[in-house]
């Protein structure tokens, strides 16, 4: 019987990750994310229901919303299908998807918002939690959970089928250790099919971590010396915690001056979860959760925080409109001594991307705008190393924007036979 993969979303794009595998008589789906595009936020669920009226299992790689942001919608479409993920992802997923729902309805309230919260609660109760290196038997296939690096709880899946054949589905992967997670653990033998993210595969940019950290510190020192305030927009999950530890280590090592750092937005809550799950301190004398204020609106609270703190770490990482970091940026923009320091990926739809690339917007900002590249994704060289290590018969790139090597890329709705 023929085996195939169809990206329901997240094939030739970053966003709405969702991948249907049909392995003989077994149908499984990996991930159910959303796009940062309000017009078509979800994977193609209509196509999915045609291809798979029933699913044998659903797996979630990690808790970033481009991979899990529509899991509650998917769950309602397949109410009897088990949903598997790691313990850490289960705990983080609920918080991340709840926030995504809140942001979705921030401009216009609707009864649908409360329906989505209810679906999320029902989905959370259905999650079946597994440890890394656990193996599940789903009819005639085996699915093994492997650490993917990237962020806390992120899993890759080794899928064994047809007695001696295997697939390695990376999810989002990092082959380099970070401050909060180890590097990915790879399958111990070669695989027939490698399905890998390609966030930076089509870019020639390589990540020299030590150099990036030193340049980051240098920017902070310059702003501090001119008595400016700093905003570091961050992804709440993963990037925020890495930046917190970088700043703490920099102050302890004397590479940046002692300063007051406030962590605001969703990053504050996620960092508390990281503290509990990792038994590791993120908040300390210098780095603190931003205070909460009663009786004043959020704009006034942000103004007060900027009076007290030298540096604000806040979501969203892309300066999406109406998020805390967007409010902080608008306040900092008025003074040339201040700086906004981007530290991660920016989609074209985001205000952060437009700020860096649109002169008309940029001219309204007096403050310094800097971008330092940190990444929880493997770069092109690391992905090439991955291919060499696993020696797959076939490689399919997903979760990226195809470049010249387009023949290896899996496009949305494309049937990929193997």
Automatic annotation (TrEMBL):
Keyword Metal-binding among record annotations: no
Membrane-spanning ranges: none
Protein name per Swiss-Prot or TrEMBL: RNA-metabolising metallo-beta-lactamase
Keyword set includes Hydrolase: yes
Pfam families found in the cross-reference section: Beta-Casp, Lactamase_B_6, RMMBL
Domain Metallo-beta-lactamase: 15-205
GO molecular function: hydrolase activity; RNA endonuclease activity
Organism: Desulfurobacterium thermolithotrophum (strain DSM 11699 / BSA)
SMART domains: Beta-Casp, Lactamase_B
